[in-house]
Design a protein that fits this description.
heterodimer; A: alpha+beta; Gyrase A, domain 2; 2 domains; 30% strand; globular; B: 106 residues; Folate-binding fold; 4-stranded antiparallel β-sheet; 6 strands
């Protein structure tokens, strides 16, 4: 159960919807940081979660419940739909990986996830990212570690344009920068009718 | 826009990286025995090469790993990247040539 007093980092922001672009928070997703040697951890990790550890940059592996995102050659982010799943999975992984050199930390409280969806998903994100986001360069299930202006983020394309619900990307961002990133994305989405947002922090938005 | 070739992530924009200065500088094993001049030399003095230069980079906004690179400081071209702790690879051919302007300061 989520503590009734828990407040997500973007609880003060209502979802935004415009033409071809929508912005919403996915509060209380469960996130685990896993570190170790890929070859060493893969069999035990696979047995515990049913997922293979992604080995290359941009790699992800998706299961019915949780997914694993590549962050670095020895570091992954395991995403589960709910916080309580992360706590349970952390315990299971601690047992499964016992004896292997590794680290599992429940980092659900450190981050939040912003969902960007709609036909303009790539176009809106491309205003903020220095990487190529064209469908031939950034495919479904690829995660990009980069920065949106001053905020370091992971951008994960969970659905492409050809999928039933249309394109959807998820932006994993530190809690303290969540409002900043929200306002940046809203600013980038003004072209598609998103309402401008006033940042609550002291970090000013850079010209987008 | 300078593209930096990260050994883990491929070519990425320079804005994702943090520059770590000259590579292969080893800390003196017994710093307490050094004179002020020797310590100042270790702390402050760098070679300031014009030409092929070995330096450290960190992919701060990506995989957050440090790596070494050989860069031509005259043309900003990255000639090679290699892991921390490794010796710089030998470069063949014309890239190895020193810029002639260096002689003026000799």
């Amino acid at each position: 159960m989520i503590d009734a007093r828990a407040r997500s980092p973007l609880a003060h922001r209502a979802p935004l919807a415009g033409d071809d672009l929508r912005l919403a928070e996915r509060p209380f997703e469960g996130l685990l940081a896993l570190r170790g040697e890929a070859d060493e951890l893969d069999p035990a990790f696979g047995a515990a979660t049913g997922l293979a550890l992604p080995r290359a940059c941009r790699g992800t592996s998706r299961g019915p419940g949780s997914s694993a995102l590549w962050l670095a050659p020895d570091e992954w982010l395991v995403v589960t739909p709910a916080v309580e799943d992360a706590a349970r999975l952390a315990t299971e992984l601690a047992l499964a990986l016992a004896g292997l050199r590794h680290q599992v930390v429940d980092v659900s409280d450190y981050y939040t996830v912003v969902q960007v969806s709609g036909r303009a998903t790539r176009a809106a994100l491309a205003k903020l990212v220095a990487l190529d986001l064209h469908p031939r360069a950034w495919r479904r299930d690829e995660v990009l570690g980069t920065h949106l202006a001053k905020a370091i983020v992971q951008i994960w394309l969970v659905a492409g344009e050809t999928d039933a619900g249309g394109a959807e990307a998820r932006v994993v961002v530190r809690r303290s920068l969540a409002d900043y990133v929200w306002c940046l994305l809203a600013e980038a989405g003004r072209e598609w009718g998103l309402d401008p947002q006033r940042p609550i922090g002291r970090v000013r938005l850079e010209a987008v | 826009m300078l593209l930096v070739p990260c050994p883990n992530c491929g070519e990425r924009d320079q804005s994702e990286f943090h520059y770590g200065g000259e590579a292969h500088r080893t800390r003196p094993t017994a710093p307490e025995t050094l004179s002020d001049d020797e310590w100042a030399d270790y702390v402050f003095m760098r070679t300031n090469t014009k030409g092929v230069f070995a330096e450290r980079w960190c992919h701060t906004a990506g995989c957050r790993k440090w790596f070494n690179a050989l860069r031509d400081t005259g043309s900003d071209a990255f000639l090679a990247v290699y892991r921390m702790g490794e010796e710089p690879p030998r470069l063949g051919g014309e890239e190895k040539e020193e810029a002639p302007a260096d002689e003026a300061f000799a």
